[in-house]
Specification:
Distance between the termini of chain B: 18 Å
Structural class of chain B: alpha/beta
Number of strands of chain B: 10
Oligomer: heterodimer
Largest sheet of chain B: 6 strands, mixed
Largest interface: A-B, 34 and 37 residues
Radius of gyration of chain A: 32 Å
Number of helices of chain B: 7
Shape of chain A: elongated
Strand content of chain B: 25-35%
Shape of chain B: globular
Order of helices and strands of chain B: EEEHEEHEHHHEHEHEE
């Protein structure tokens, strides 16, 4: 039905202006997308070296910041207790009763800046110590557990070093408290280093991204030069900017997709090149630390950013060209 | 169909390509635009194709004032204007059929209609049996006829030609002109820029003569 009504021919003085139905226009639009995608892929297959080089530029651009991010993520994991939230360790006297511990725990938790208070009993402490220090068996030589009960107090993010220091002095005076220990300077230092690392990564990513954008733009510009006459003719017979842009956007898409895949492979290669050393190192320190690698979400975002870079580069290159063709 | 009102075009380097150009071409009329090279013929056609905009004055095509047409509307305007070039501007990497089909694909015609219309256009210029050839395999006259087929394939009400017989011998030129006459007879407004005065005399249609960017003859209707 729709097809038989596809054209309404309107005759004006012998020559006919034609309108095309929306349905037919949509079909043609989809067909042009399909053809552009296929055609741009075929063209890139015919120039594999150029495709490979452009993909590598995008791949390296994405892989470097991704590796940095993963490294920072692992550092964060390394310091389970150094995750940026400041803590105090409150060692209690060993004579303290369970009721008194509970009371103290409750009253510490009432403080505004406190996020959580965790009790580590002497038994738990011993078990953890044995496990972490790799001293299993040695502890059996001791007649009694030498460890005191411990309250691990975690403060809210943003609690200043000075505030922590005041709290530390105050709590030192509380009954049943033996000693209040802080490792906040370490915490703050590491936190700042990681912040710095994140900032460097962002700056690096931005610079590399700009480079990749220019590189893709240049490659697309070459492709535009090769098809200059085609663009001129298409524009003269009524092609819209979108029509001219489409095949090049698909070129950018393929470059970006390949670049994203290269990035994923590079990150995986980077991961496997250090994992054995890390495992050995962790074994030396009796740590059960395991390197965190690339997860699906990161891999997907690498592909996504790669495609976005490719298409944006193409968009800018074609946009410049189309702008130059505007009537003046 | 085509109206020029005091149109002028100056280029940034100070060159005055057109000045005070006034004329009107009726619908279905066939007109020659003549003058020496550099007289402004190409500029005038470029203004009509909206490849360039006039510095001064008003151009009205099919009731549409071109100055008021935004950049994003230009593609749709051009779909109503067929253009034939001296160097025919065919794409060498595709067949005659695909060259002629290009405007239809751009407009979004269904593939079924494209075949029918392309063959109708090729038939009109006598090249139906050449549809699977590449332009390079055709003679100059044949290439120009492919260019004409491409210009008329979506049945534009206006046909512009810039030196369409520039590289052809007199017989082929006459043949091309007869094709233009055929279109004119079915109501297409045809404007042909040429410096081939013999041809103009021989076919005897209205002639607008440009010299140094000004209309020196033929600006008034009925001359």
């Amino acid at each position: 039905m729709a097809k038989s009504n596809a054209r309404n021919e309107k005759t004006t003085r012998g020559a006919s202006a034609t309108t095309i139905s929306w349905r037919a226009l949509l079909d043609a639009w989809i067909a042009h997308h399909r053809d552009s995608a296929r055609d741009s892929l075929t063209r890139q297959r015919r120039a594999p070296l150029q495709h490979f080089l452009t993909a590598m530029v995008i791949g390296i651009t994405l892989a470097l910041p991704a590796l940095f991010t993963i490294a920072i993520d692992n550092l964060q994991q390394l310091g389970e207790r150094w995750d940026g939230a400041p803590r105090l360790s409150v060692f209690l006297q060993r004579t303290v009763t369970a009721d008194e511990i509970q009371q103290l725990q409750h009253s510490l938790h009432q403080q505004a800046s406190v996020n959580a208070v965790t009790l580590i009993t002497p038994e738990q402490g011993l078990a953890a110590f044995e496990k972490n220090a790799g001293l299993s068996g040695t502890m059996e030589l001791l007649e009694e557990n030498p460890l005191p009960p411990l309250l691990l107090v975690e403060f809210k993010n943003g609690t200043s070093v000075d505030a922590l220091h005041d709290v530390q002095t105050d709590w030192q005076q509380l009954p049943h408290v033996d000693k209040v220990q802080a490792d906040m300077e370490w915490v703050q230092k590491l936190f700042r280093m990681m912040q710095l690392g994140e900032r460097i990564t962002i700056a690096l990513a931005a610079l590399l991204g700009l480079g990749a954008l220019l590189s893709v733009g240049n490659t697309i510009r070459l492709a535009i030069e090769n098809r200059r006459s085609e663009i001129v003719v298409a524009k003269l017979v009524g092609a819209t900017d979108a029509f001219v842009r489409r095949p090049f956007l698909y070129s950018g898409f393929w470059f970006g997709l390949s670049g994203g895949i290269v990035a994923v492979l590079l990150v995986i290669a980077g991961y496997y090149s250090v994992i054995s050393q890390v495992a050995e190192l962790a074994a030396l320190y009796h740590s059960d630390f395991a390197l965190r690698g690339l997860n699906i979400a990161t891999a997907a975002s690498l592909l996504f950013v790669g495609i976005a870079l490719g298409m944006l580069g193409a968009w800018l290159a074609v946009g410049q060209h189309l702008h130059d063709m505007r009537p003046r | 169909m085509i109206e020029f009102h005091s149109v002028a075009k100056h280029y940034p380097n100070g060159y005055e390509a057109l000045a005070h150009v006034n004329f009107e071409i009726a619908s279905g009329e066939m007109t020659f635009l003549t003058g020496h090279s550099g007289a402004g013929k190409s500029t005038l056609l470029k203004l009509l194709m909206l490849m360039e905009r006039p510095t001064l004055g008003k151009i009205v095509v099919a009731g549409q004032e071109l100055n008021k047409l935004g950049t994003s509307r230009i593609p749709y305007y051009r779909r109503h204007i067929g253009v034939v070039f001296q160097d025919h501007q065919l794409l060498t990497d595709r067949t005659v059929f695909d060259n002629v089909a290009l405007p239809l694909r751009i407009c979004g015609f269904p593939e079924r209609d494209i075949g029918r219309r392309v063959r109708a256009a090729l038939d009109k210029v006598g090249l139906l049996e050449r549809e699977q050839y590449y332009p390079i395999a055709l003679s100059g006259g044949e290439q120009q006829r492919v260019g004409i087929a491409r210009a008329v394939v979506n049945k534009p009400p206006i046909l512009l030609a810039d030196e369409p017989t520039g590289n052809l011998d007199p017989d082929l030129s006459a043949e091309i002109m007869r094709i233009f006459e055929d279109f004119s007879q079915v109501g297409v407004t045809v404007l042909i820029a040429t410096h081939d005065l013999d041809l103009v005399t021989r076919f005897g249609h209205r002639e607008i003569v440009l010299r140094r960017g000004r209309v020196i003859r033929g600006g008034e209707r009925g001359m």
